[in-house]
Amino acid sequence: MVDDLQENEDIGPISNIPSTSSPSIRSKINLDDLPSDPANRPPITSYHPNQIDDVRRAYLVKKAFQPRGHNFKWSNYSSGQRRFSVKWYDKYDWLECSTKQEKAYCLCCYLFNGSVGNQGGREEHIGEVNSVHNNSVQKCDYLLNQKRSYEANVTKNSNEENIANWYRLLGSVCSLRFLLENSLSFPGHNESEDSFSKGLFLVILKLICENNPDIGKYCLGNAKKNNKLTAPSIQKDIIDCFAKEVTQRLCEEFKDDVFGMLANEPSDVSQKEQMAIVLRYVDKCGVVKES
Ligand SMILES: [Zn+2]
After folding, report:
1. CA 126–ligand 1 middle distance (angstroms)
2. Residue 11, pLDDT score
């Protein structure tokens, strides 16, 4: 690295993320109004998991907070007096500086490392190829490119294709929701077209298609063979989404209150174990609930 700046115009140490108050769980976030100054930002992990990537993208699109008009104060170091120099912004696009605290921060490490990061000077902070900082920079690039490829796909698809995909997904979600709500098993022994034992997931999806012409128009036999959105892996993805939603809702109900947990792990004849968990708690209205 060529240091073409004067010794007294260094970045100073890259600071750790300050912990300001956290946004409430899954509150509505205005992505155009995220705190700009690093000293005012809540820890990135305090955002709801469903919103965290949107927040990261919004910060990456806004780019690092690099105020230029600010008159930075001189500070005493063992090597003499120093102050932050805005010239370093041109060299490092991840570098940010809080005007509130007059400290340097790293946007990439804030977005992907929460409060952990190498807090040394710029070279120590960047570190080796596999350093915390370089991994964060890579994750930022990946997140932005992922968004671009998703947008490119949606734009590339015709409007009719997007509508068809939406109805296909809706059909699968409705069928799985019914099965989960009623604790019914869903995989069939053989989910192929000519099977007599397709399993409840496909049977209910067929029923939905027969009774809802909008969904029926795009699903099952009317969908392309490679885009039916009924594969076991898709079913599993949708169930995972339900599980996250349910867990989130339960956590919101407990808040910081106490709850009882009962776990049991019986095994079937093939010694395959299945764990069942029951949570017992008093909800906001004072009613005892078991989930
Ligand atoms: Zn960093």
Report:
1. 6
2. 67
